[in-house]
Structure formats: C-alpha cells, structure tokens
Amino acid sequence: MREVREETGLVLTAPEFVGPLFRREAVFAFDGAVIDSVEFFFAAACERFEPAPSGWTELERRTLDEMRWCTPEEIRDLPDPVYPAALADLIPDVRAALAAGTAPDEPVAID
To answer: What number of CA atoms fall less than 13 Å from residue 94's CA on the CB side?
Structure first.
C-alpha cells in the first residue's frame, strides 16, 4: 500500500489487494550496486487516474522517465525492457484473480 501511494499517489487499503499472485527473484546491477531482490506482486482494481509521483525518491526521479497506462499489446511493443519480462502475459491471470477476489495458495514463480 505504501509503495503504490509513494510511486503513483493512489491510496488503497489492504482489502483492495489480491495476492501475492507472483514471486520473482532477481539479481541485477543498478546504480552502481548489485541488487539481490525477492519481489512479490499483488493486484488491485482501480479507475484510471493520472499518476502523481510526488513520493518518488531522488534516485527514482533520476532514473525513471515516465509512467503511463498500457495494454498488454503496448507493453510487448515498448522499446525498453519491462520487468518482469512476462508482464504482458501475466495480465489474464491478474484479471482472473481480481474477478475471483482470491490469489493462489502460493505465489507463482516468474522470471
């Protein structure tokens, strides 16, 4: 909830989230450091809104170029990498989980 608010300005409550749906382990270089992360992905339905990145850190302001709404097809056509790489392919599972209001017993591992 905190991360969504800080990065988009959208305020959500715990009951609005479904998940975790997915889990990703990644090791990558970023901003001069090696990051070893375990990420959990949740979903929440919301009306379209204009993101307000007022909670971005200095590092986020320096390294992020834009935020925008994308269809799965538009995600596939983006010129820059998107992480997780299979994001566009995960959208049907996200929509199904939101419609059902439930997540799997264990988050699905993704790359």
So the answer is: 14
